[in-house]
Amino acid sequence: MIVMNRFARRAAYFLIIATTMGAVLCTRVLTSVHAQATAPTTDKAVAIMDPTLISRGEYLAKLGDCAGCHTAPKQGAPFAGGLAMGSPFGTIYSTNITPDRQTGIGHYSYAEFERALRDGVAPGGKRLYPAMPYASFTKISDADMLALYAYFMHGVLPVSNRPPETMLPFPFSQRWGLFFWDTAFVRHERFKQDDKRDAQWNRGAYLVQSLGHCGACHTPRGAGFEERGYDESSRLYLTGGANDNWFAPNLTGDLGSGLGRLSPHDIAAFLKSGHGAAVHIVTFGSMVQVVEDSAQYFTDDDLNAIAHYLKSLPAREPSGAYNPQSQKAQEMAVSLKTGDVEHPGAGLYLAFCAKCHQTDGRGVLQKFPALAGNPTVLALDTTSLLRLVIEGGASPQTLNGPPTRKMPAFANQFTDAEIASVLTFVRTSWGNEARPVAKRDVAVLRGKLKK
């Protein structure tokens, strides 16, 4: 009944938008047709064969993590589609974006390619579900768009593969309604530089807001499943978001659950290798694939630009706190060293967790993440913490980073009450100050994960 009620609410919202936005139909169609009438000039047609442009497009495709969504797991052909992506409305399958003319995008003109990326409309007028982050890709510059087209047409091997067709339940199966969603929520404009900021800031902002589409995961969604902001002018932009039973953390300057205590070097190192430099944080969940498929290939200049931009964001939606010098933290440190701890969850932690994360919660640099002061530990939303304990996880395997390490799953070893107890202990020890974890939270997530 809970699922049906949620779908009913979504359906009602969808239909309200379809009704109320109808008045803008004619104006938007005329504007869209004018913008989409452009085709590549002769000069452009020649340029897309340029090896330098194709090479640049390959790098841009890594910046956009195109392979991350458009490559099926278990050794699927690159960009041939077929990845199943969970959404509140059902499973969405990624499409084949190789230059195969029958099953891929080999027949796309430049104008059609541009329209798909920026407007979410495939040839023939078929609307793409916003799992394709065109709300971010609309900001991609013209030069970068041309380079991407050159790469996908002439730098990617064509693969004949027809992925499963996305079949969402009514009314979400009615793709025409996405016109109204787009009209209501997407700002179709290129990235505009801020002349008051330096070149590094503007480069970082461009990457985060467009190709990197960081907000697609790290920005909360509204009632219409829209991102609650697309740049730093929005209060909720990059303050954390729930996606496919993971919580993507706050990227603003919050000292608790955000990036406030991380240096730009920590952020750049985290993206490059999945591990912080001085702060012992490690990539988890879907971000592991982002590092493996995308971020590890970024140039140092681009990594530093992204870090510079993120560090400029003021603290928003603060959650949790970290005070390792508090009396409580000092007393707990002594108790953990001697093993004289009576706090609920402490025994489980010492028996199952301390070997890797250490009794002081500081982890091991380049191996196991610290839990003391970890922004994810301090986040208001505990979904990611719970899922890691239930399912386990692994750090990324990168070309130049530390070897991958695995965390075991405890779904079959711990009861709901025990998971809640040990995580509450972690969230309130070593100076961590975050709300307790409820047994019901564990049970709900277990149900969603079928664990």
What features would you highlight for this structure?
single chain, 451 residues, mainly alpha, Cytochrome Bc1 Complex, Chain D, domain 2, 3 domains, two-stranded antiparallel sheet, two-stranded antiparallel ribbon, 43% helix, globular, metal-binding
Would you kindly provide a written description of the structure presented here, covering whatever features stand out?
The chain has 451 residues and is mainly alpha-helical. The radius of gyration is 23 Å and the shape is globular. Helix content is 43%, strand content 5%. Helix 4 packs across helix 8, helix 12 crosses helix 14 and helix 19 crosses helix 20. It folds into 3 domains: 184 residues, no CATH class; 113 residues, no CATH class; 129 residues, Cytochrome Bc1 Complex, Chain D, domain 2. The strands form 4 sheets. It has a two-stranded antiparallel sheet. It is found in: Cell membrane. It comes from Paraburkholderia polaris. One of its GO terms (cellular component) is plasma membrane.
Q: Which regions have little confidence, pLDDT < 50, spanning 5+ residues?
A: 1-38
**SSE arrangement, N to C:** HHHHHEEHHHHHHEEHHHEHHHHEEHEH
Instruction: Summarize the amount of helix as a percent range.
Output: 40-55%
Q: Number of folding domains?
A: 3
Shape: globular
Number of strands: 8
Rounded mean pLDDT is 88
Strand % is under 5%
- State Rg: 23 Å
Largest sheet: 2 strands, antiparallel
**What class would the helix/strand composition place it in?**
mainly alpha
**Span between termini:** 20 Å
The count of helical stretches stands at 20
Lateral strand order in the biggest sheet: 1-2
Binding site for heme c 1: 66, 69-70
Pfam families: Cytochrom_C
Keywords: Cell membrane, Heme, Iron, Membrane, Metal-binding, Repeat, Signal
Binding site for heme c 2: 214, 217-218
